[in-house]
Amino acid sequence: MTESSFSARLSELLRFIYPELDAHILTSQVIEAFWPEEKHRRKQPRKPGNNLWTQNDAVLITYGDSLIDGFHKPLDLMHDFLLTHMKGVVNGVHILPFFPFTSDDGFAVTDYRKVNPQLGEWSDITRISSEFHLMSDLVLNHVSSQGVWFNAYRQGQAPYDKFFFEADPSDDVSMVVRPRTTPLLQEVETAMGTRYVWCTFSHDQIDLDFRNPEVLLEIIRIIRLHIDMGVRIIRLDAVAFLWKQLGTNCIHLPQTHAVIQLMRLLMDYTTETVILLTETNVPKAENLSYFGRRNEAHVVYNFPLPPLILHAMMSGSAKYLIDWQRTMPPAPLGCAYLNFTASHDGIGMRPAEGLLPPPEIGQVIDTIREIGGLVSMRSLPGGGEAPYELNCSYFEAMGRTFQGADDHHFARFLCSQTIMMSLEGIPAFYIHSMLATPNDLEAVERRGMNRAINRHRWNYPELQERLADPESLHARVLAALSERLKLRAEQPGFHPNATQFTLNLDQRIFGLWRQSLDRAQSIFALHNVSGETIEIPAGDLNLIADEKWVDLLSGEEVTAGAVEMAPYQCRWITNLV
Q: What residue range is the signal peptide (predicted)?
């Protein structure tokens, strides 16, 4: 794509998004917003390929204040934790919204250009970004009701007087897909009179109106700021809801995809290597649509994974996990999946729709409640509610099966995380999974929010003391996960785009065959999701003759005979050591 074709493609997208405006003027404005005079762009776009990531890549997900001590800046403590415990284990870190905010633990932003002073400052962010691949949140669907932009809107100040999506109470919004049960519209008094603003998530999170190109231009300027501060992975938060159009479901609209394509086009021409990640907690086909035709997100979350692994470990059967994985396409060239089991949010249940039968989902919900977890609901179009997410520490969620509690808690959790490490894609670990943090029910009661159950703030000196004791549960989990991640990073067969084939084995075994891009290494990744000892017949694994096969996790040589799997045991059997 030449310089002229870059401008032509940018104009084409802008003409589609804003058909009534001058696309040439908008093109110049977008270029100026993203590449101010002192900035330069590539002459040729970055071509799709498998070189944006390797098997060395893994991400830690954390809040900026997941570690506190009452004296130091939380970002200082996080920096110390990353250097002390995560160096060589992960090379990326997703610091959840680190901006000033009013609610939703950072996702109601008041100022996109500042670092929350309670966490630290930009120098703390750039220090981390100089040592780890830094992911930041672009909360582009909505802003805080108490932020600078919305206050200016209420006062009728240009350009913010046209920054927010308005509707009328008489409008038919029955088709609108909602992730929450709160009323969609909020009545507010402004200098222009009474207005009803759109609130997809909460009344403190007012939706922006991307029909106004000034909104898009300001978001592009913010992306440029983040890149200049060292951000290399930009997470497009709640992006599926970006474009609204009355009479539709207001999710996944064509203009939303066009805006992402525009952002991808800009990233393809940045001198910095920047990856776009879309956060779309929706069923599979809708989620995969955000790869576009290799022209939207570089990476999408593998959202079905958390509930499907949870069900497999609780039920002792990988049937539904296997059925789903068999139908999953490899990521397109230049794209990858982000695999995870836990995040700052709950375990999303929408991606399980159509994959887990309702009775199975019911059993999972019942078991989570027995553990002390919670269930959050969403509104259905036309009325009614359905489970939206399960709120529970993933480590705690592994403490019980459908049959009840047992002595396999640690092994079951380690198995769940090893499955995630073995799959095609880039693994991401929530800090509270790495630390085996229990449910924080006190925080739920104190904050009145279900998600607080999995957003514990560790007292850093106390955590350090526990991690210093090798017999503590926290130290054991961190050590086990770290060891496997370091081992994984040495295996070309675990490249995010390495060949993957789902094995046809006993349904209690989730088995994958991975093969490196150069075909030199094969790995048979086997995971027993049950509490029973299982023997895999020799003929079920295609162990090539005249090769030496070794289980990387146990160190033992594997012969051509049957392979035994202890309860919740995992094996990485490879021909290349």
A: none
pTM, two decimal places: 0.96
- For the record, the structure tokens of 10 come out as 């940018």
**CA–CA separation, 200 vs 265, rounded Å?**
28
pLDDT, tens digit, for every residue of 534-561?
A: 999 878 887 877 788 999 999 999 987 7
DSSP state of 41: B
Q: How far apart are CA 10 and CA 26, in angstroms?
A: 9
Give the full edge-to-edge strand order of the sheet including 385-391.
Answer: 347-348, 385-391, 374-379
Instruction: Say if residue 79 carries a ligand binding annotation.
Output: no
CA distance 401 to 96: 31
pLDDT, tens digit (0-9, with 9 covering 90-100), for 169-207? 999 999 999 888 889 999 999 999 999 999 999 999 999
Q: Is 344 annotated as a binding residue?
A: yes
Residue 465 has a CB neighbour count (10 Å cut-off) of 12
User: Residue 19 is encoded by which pair of tokens?
Assistant: 């058909």
Residue 506 marked ligand-binding: no
- Which domains does the chain possess? 499-574 (2.60.40.1180)
Token readout for 135 is 């992911």
Active site residues: 237
Strands 336-339 and 299-301: parallel
